[in-house]
Amino acid sequence: MAISNVEFVLNCKIERAWNTVVSLENYTWRTDLQKIEVLEERKFVEYTKDGYMTSFTITVFEPFKRYEFDIENENIQGHWLGLFSEDNGKIILNFTENIIAKKWFLKPFLSKYLKKQQQRYIKDLTNAIEPSL
Question: Model pTM greater than 0.85?
Answer without folding.
Answer: yes
